[in-house]
Each structure stands twice: as C-alpha cells, then as structure tokens.
Amino acid sequence: MAVLVVTGTGTEVGKTAVTAAVAAAAVAAGRTVAVLKAAQTGVGPEEAGDAAEVARLAGAVTVAECARYPEPLAPATAARRAGLAPVRPQDVVELAQKLAVEHDLVLVEGAGGLLVRFDEEGGNLADVAALLGAPVLLVASAGLGTLNTTELTARELRSREVELLGVVIGSWPRVPDLAMRCNVEDLPVVSGAPLLGVLPEGVGALTPADFREAAGSWLAGRLDGVWDAEEFRAGLE
Fold this sequence. Notes:
The chain is α/β, with parallel strands linked by helices. It has helices spanning 15-28, 50-58, 75-82, 89-102, 125-132, 146-159, 178-191, 208-215, 229-236, and strands at residues 3-8, 33-37, 40-41, 62-65, 68-69, 105-113, 136-140, 164-172, 195-200.
C-alpha cells in the first residue's frame, strides 16, 4: 500500500485527525510517510493548512499541497473565485507518484467528501484514487445520518472499482448515544468494509507527544495500530 487516499463522508468529520493518526502509527512502525493535500481551501499563503497540522501531530512526515485557495469553498469554486488555476486529478496523481518513489506510504487527503469538485470538468478525489489504483480510507461521523452518507460513498467507490480499505469514525464522544452505539455495528454492513478505528473526540487538542503515543490505540492492525473492533463493540454493551 504505497498510496492511501483519505476521504470523508463530508466536512468536519475528523479527516485531518485520522490522517495524522495513520501517519503517526506508520512512522512509529518505522515507515517513511508523506502527506499530500490535494486541494487546500480557506487559508492564506502563509497560514498552516491541513498537511501542516498532520505534520504537527504526527511528527517526521513530508508534507505537500497541489494547490491552495483563500476562501473556504469547494476547490473548483474557490479556484474560480480567486482567478487561479484549478487542481486537476492528474496533478494530484503525478505528485503522489513522485512522493511514493521516496516514501513507504503516501497519504492523499481530499477536501470534504469524495465527489467534491476540483475543477470545472468535475474531476474529484474518486478520479485520483482510480488513476492511482489506490485504496480509499473513509472517515465517517459517529451519529445519526452517517449510515446514509457512508453507504453512498461506498457505492460510488464500488461503481468505479476502487477499493474501500475500511471506515474510521473520526470523533467518538465520551458518552455515545443509542444511534452511535448501533452505528458501530451497522457501518461495516452498509459500507461493505471493516471498521478500522475510532478516534476519541478532541484528539487534535492533545500535545503532539500524547497524540503520537496514543495514535496506534485508535487504529486497527491494517493501519499499524492495535485497536480491536470486537473489543470496542463489547465495551459498548
């Protein structure tokens, strides 16, 4: 798995924190890691973006961006409004392939959900994954409504013959409600892929040292961690 594409079921589901956790666990396992943000929106030229936040939390990783735009909008819209060239799927693919030459793992983080448009032709992260032949890790929310968005994303990936490696819940509250507890059982069913981890809410506020120490406990072995889905489910009963 030289390249892993990380997407979410939407915005604000914990995608950057999950990317950082996967990166931290891989680094702890002795792998070299690069993090590529396909399109960064909503930050100025000198501000830290999502890739920089991953590096802050995860440690020794290489970071790169294909493009950034100042307004917090879908990349195609943000590019048009800023009068800047859009990022295209092939641009992301080429940079990911270059990074893969020198790193054991390249994490390509998208913007928002799977089908958010990069350019006026409708290019998106699903196109990137298909062109790379790379699996996708899907970050989902914990609560009510997540089953629908997760299943829609999984169906889109299957229609493109792109592998869905698994699902990670991006933010798990201290006191989960009934829907959240049921979703732990149902997310693998609707996605057709295993649940590969659960991140406690607020992990982005941890110190980098604490984040790196704990990252492996949030992720399953497929992601260089020690988290166990059956044990987690049993703890909810």
